Amino acid sequence: KEEYDLKTCIFGHIFRENVVVHNRRSVPMKITVEKPKHIEGQLQINPTLAYVQGNKEQVIQVKFSPKDDFLDRHQQYRDASRKGITGAFRIPVTIVGAEQVLPVHTVLVGTLTTNNISFQPSVLNFG
User: Fold this and answer.
1) What HEC string does the chain produce?
2) CA-to-CA distance for 86 and 14, rounded, in angstroms?
């Protein structure tokens, strides 16, 4: 897929997604996953190097565990296409196949939020 939607992600919690890579050739292909290096500890991809058998698929596991200051420290991952949504992110991931001219580009998208609840007005009068 071109885009993997992690939906709503809460700071400090773990979110997982499986990225599936298909090999349409009849021979095995070596693939390498290139992820942003400066968000170590918050984004883990396993495996980053794999051999996909001919006419088969390989599942790549993505684990995202954002910290409270993720979008403040990594402004480049704010999703500009969703301007009205606070906390919207877009993280590019590139998969390179050996002997393949063009890499595969995909993105992880979602919305970051806290798990705090607030009421407006702060006092409710039931009667």
Assistant:
1) CCEEEEEEEECCCCEEEEEEEECCCCCCEEEEEECCHHHCCCEEEECCEEEECCCCEEEEEEEECCCCCHHHHCHHHECCCCCCCCCEEEEEEEEEECCCCCCEEEEEEEEEECCCCCCCCCCCCCC
2) 20
Residue of 21, 4, 19 lying closest to 90 (CA atoms): 4
Q: Cβ of 104: how many Cβ atoms within 10 Å?
A: 16
- Write the pLDDT tens digit of every residue in 4-56: 999 999 999 999 999 999 999 999 999 999 988 888 889 999 999 999 999 99
One-letter identity of residue 4: Y
Question: What span, in angstroms and rounded, lies between the C-alpha atoms of 69 and 72?
Answer: 5
What pLDDT is attached to residue 102?
Answer: 94
Average pLDDT over residues 75-79: 95
Angle at 43 between CA 11 and CA 111, to 5 degrees: 40
**Token digits for 90?**
């877009």
Question: Could you tell me the pTM of the whole model?
Answer: 0.87
